[in-house]
Amino acid sequence: MTQTPINPPPPPVNDPMFRTLDKTGPLEKALRKSKASEGGKTHWILPTILFVCILGLLAYILYLHTEISAQQDHLATLDEGMDATDTRLDQMEETLYKTEDVLAAEINKTGQALTELGIQQNRAVERIRQDITRKADREEVKTVEMQAQNLSTDVGTLKNNLTDVDTNVKQVDTKVETLNEKVTEQAKTIEEQRQLIESNIVNINATKNILDDTRDSLINLKTSLDRNYHVFQLDKKMGIIRVSDVGVRLKKTKDSKQEYEVEVFYDDQKMKKKGVANVPINFYKMGYRKHYELVISKVEKNKIQGYLSTPKVKD
């Protein structure tokens, strides 16, 4: 302890433990009161530091909570975008199925038309043969040939139309395949982003748990450090003096070895202790789970000085 040791206040007049033991004169009593008024100025430093640390920790926890909310909103937006993409893909597949049905119907219709044209062509050829058999006129033969050429031209046009239909079907298939690849790539990208966000959320939650544990540890540390310190100076001639709610009497000292022997009075009992300077003497009073600590920091001939550390709150 770095505080200047002060003499404790004189014991009460009616206290049986102290009546006939206080031989302090008026000058020494005034000196004790002046030194007692100077002590305790640093009692607020440690609570202030702990309070600032707790405020900073709460601000950081609030920041982490905001980050988690933003990440969850981003994930919800990605889910909505993926749902919209699935809906568009379903619509495209439905359109493709309808297109395939239409193309199949057109192909069937074209096949029926070709069949009917074949039948008509066979009938026309048969009529031409019959006409050639009946008539030998060259002009009629040319007319029949022109009709046959016209029929061949119609058949070629139908074949070209059928080829165009097949080409359109192949183009539609190519476009659908390309669209499927793009949708697959987009779904893969969305899934990777989802996994990354979930990983970040897990990390943030882990960090939050660590901060909560740290906050609890700081609170426990603050509670354990929340103590009172009573500095005193005791001469052998003074007999028993009161330090907080404990009585202390010096029996003897060995200043060359910094050794001492004291008697400590508390809870209607007396405890004799031999000690060495700066080695704490711990004991427990009724109603307290935390210990009392008596430390003698300096040993002189028939005189000691030190402090008594007591918990502020009963358990």
Which properties best describe this structure?
alpha+beta; 4-stranded antiparallel beta sheet; Tick-borne Encephalitis virus Glycoprotein, domain 1; 2 domains; 315 residues; 8 strands; rod-shaped; 61% helix; 3 helices; Helix Hairpins
How would you characterize the overall build of this protein?
This protein is of the alpha+beta class. The chain folds into 2 domains: 26-42 and 227-311, Tick-borne Encephalitis virus Glycoprotein, domain 1; 56-223, Helix Hairpins (Orthogonal Bundle), CATH 1.10.287.1490. The protein has 3 helices and 8 strands, in the order H-H-H-E-E-E-E-E-E-E-E. The protein has helices spanning 26-38, 45-134, 138-225, and strands spanning 227-235, 240-243, 246-254, 259-266, 269-276, 281-283, 292-300, 303-311. The strands form 2 sheets. It has a 4-stranded antiparallel β-sheet with strand order 1-8-7-6. Strands 2-3-4-5 form a 4-stranded antiparallel β-sheet, with no helix packed on it.
Topology:
Blueprint: H1 26-38, H2 45-134, H3 138-225, E1 227-235, E2 240-243, E3 246-254, E4 259-266, E5 269-276, E6 281-283, E7 292-300, E8 303-311
Antiparallel strand pairs: 1-8, 2-3, 3-4, 4-5, 6-7, 7-8
Helix pairs in contact: 2-3
CATH topology of the largest domain: Helix Hairpins
Give the total of beta strands: 8
Computed Rg: 53 Å
How many separate domains make up the residues?
2
Mean pLDDT: 79
What is the CATH C-level name of the largest domain? Answer: Mainly Alpha
Order of helices and strands: HHHEEEEEEEE
Shape, per Cα inertia axes: rod-shaped
Question: Could you give the distance between the termini?
Answer: 26 Å
SS-based class: alpha+beta
What ranges have pLDDT less than 50 throughout 5 or more consecutive residues?
18-22
Percentage of residues in helical conformation: 55-70%
What's the story with the biggest beta sheet? 4 strands, antiparallel
CATH architecture of the largest domain: Orthogonal Bundle
Strand order of the largest sheet: 1-8-7-6
| Tally of helical runs | 3
Strand content: 15-25%
